[in-house]
Amino acid sequence: MRQRTLGSSGLSVSAIGLGCMGMSVCYGPRDEDAAVETIRHALDTGVTLLDTADAYGDGHNEELVGRAVKGRRHEAVIATKFGIRSLSGGPAGGPLIDSTPAYARQACDASLSRLGVDHIDLYYLHRRNPDVPVEDTMGALAELVQAGKVRHIGLSEVSADTLRRAHAVHPVTALQSEYSLWERELEDEILPAARELGIGIVPYAPVGRGFLTGALTSLDQLADDDYRRNDPRFQGDHLARNLALVETVRATAARIGCTPVQLALAWLLSQGEDIVPIPGTKRIAYLTENTQAAGVSLPEPERRALQEAISRHAVSGARYAEPAMRLLNT
User: Fold this and answer.
1) In which region does residue 329 sit, left (phi positive, over 0), alpha (psi from -120 to 50) or beta (all else)?
2) Which of 100, 193, 217, 236 is most buried (CB neighbours < 10 A)?
3) Would you say residue 242 lies in a domain?
4) How many CB atoms lie within 10 A of CB 314?
5) Residue 259: pLDDT band by 50, 70, 90 thresholds?
6) Mean pLDDT computed over every residue of the chain
7) Number of domains in the chain
8) What is the pLDDT of residue 157?
9) Distance, CA of 48 to CA of 75 (rounded, Å)
10) Residue 187's Cα: distance from chain center in Å?
């Protein structure tokens, strides 16, 4: 697996990471033993960046990652997050967000304990409460760096202005936000700001929550508790319109000799050396498919045609329900 450096921080990670969230929540049944095996296989194949959060299963996912890396800590770059106290305890039934300095310190200690490690390689503010100045939050995170509990600081789904304000307090190593062929809003202001500041980009949902695989055509294919049953882009007319876009991905993938998943990831990788996607999976077979995308060569004419065919305005529906949308770009 090739390595990439996140921004100007010097943090070297695998060109493709592993998103671990689905091993605990949101995407149907879970199998802890299979998840641990998948994480360890990722390490075996050179995937170093493992992404988790305290909100994924109320700490379950961090415990799972900790179990998987036990005895192999030196092989992993562990990224976790804080800031979501509850996924449903906030306004209008949305997430309850706490980005206060006191909670940053409390959450960090709890994550270290669940992970079973003495430091977190990359610690993100998962979502930001706009009532708490980001300068205050960053001050607390800087103290955690000074204490040796955290090596690098990241932010998730913040605005360009917040990114600049935060970086002025302490260097921000990475920005984790949704970015893919079917979610391109980042390109307008946030991506240029990150590059101006030397901040790496870690796209989550890089395959459109599985949509760009081309395999999902009906909600009937999903488990009853699958998050996507409530995702606006998977509903009714939105789903029908978006399915037409996937045909472009399938046709292009067939022409260059890869799978639609690999094409979607290769497109992201081609957007810049500062981009490290973290596709999520629970299975070794899909992990292998994902990581092989790092070796896919995407010709420039195909790259341009693909992003013109699936433009930002071509995708139908909001990317979250309203309560969660209010937490973006804060």
Assistant:
1) left
2) 193
3) no
4) 16
5) very high
6) 93
7) 1
8) 98
9) 6
10) 16
DSSP labels, 34-95: HHHHHHHHHHHTT--EEE--TTTTTTHHHHHHHHHHTT-GGG-EEEEEE-EEESSSSGGG--
Q: Which structural domain range is residue 174 located in?
A: 3-207+265-296
In-domain check, residue 70 = yes
Per-residue pLDDT, averaged over 159-167, amounts to 98
Cβ atoms 185, 312 nearer than 8 A = yes
- Which of 88-97, 278-287, 316-325 is the least confident region? 88-97
Rounded mean pLDDT, 4-16: 95
Asked if 65 and 50 touch (Cβ cutoff 8 Å), the reply is yes
Rounded to two decimals, what is the model's pTM? 0.94
**3-class secondary structure, 203:** strand
DSSP string, 153-194: EEEES--HHHHHHHHHHS---EEEEE-BTTB-GGGTTHHHHH
316's tokens = 């139908």
CA distance 47 to 45: 6
What's at 263, amino acid-wise?
A: L
State the alpha helices, DSSP H only, in 116-152: 134-146
Higher pLDDT, 311 or 158: 158
Q: Are 95 and 127 in contact (CB under 8 A)?
A: yes
CATH number at residue 166: 3.20.20.100
Predicted local confidence at residue 314, as pLDDT: 86
Instruction: For residue 90, name the pLDDT band (cuts at 50, 70, 90).
Output: confident
User: Looking at the predicted structure, is the pLDDT value of residue 245 above 80?
Assistant: yes
| Positions marked catalytic | 56
- 301 part of a folded domain: no
Nearest residue to 18 (alpha-carbon basis) of 199, 201, 202, 177: 202
Residue 152 in domain = yes
3-state DSSP call for residue 253? helix
Q: What is the pLDDT of residue 313?
A: 83
Q: Which residue has the tokens 């305290």?
A: 54
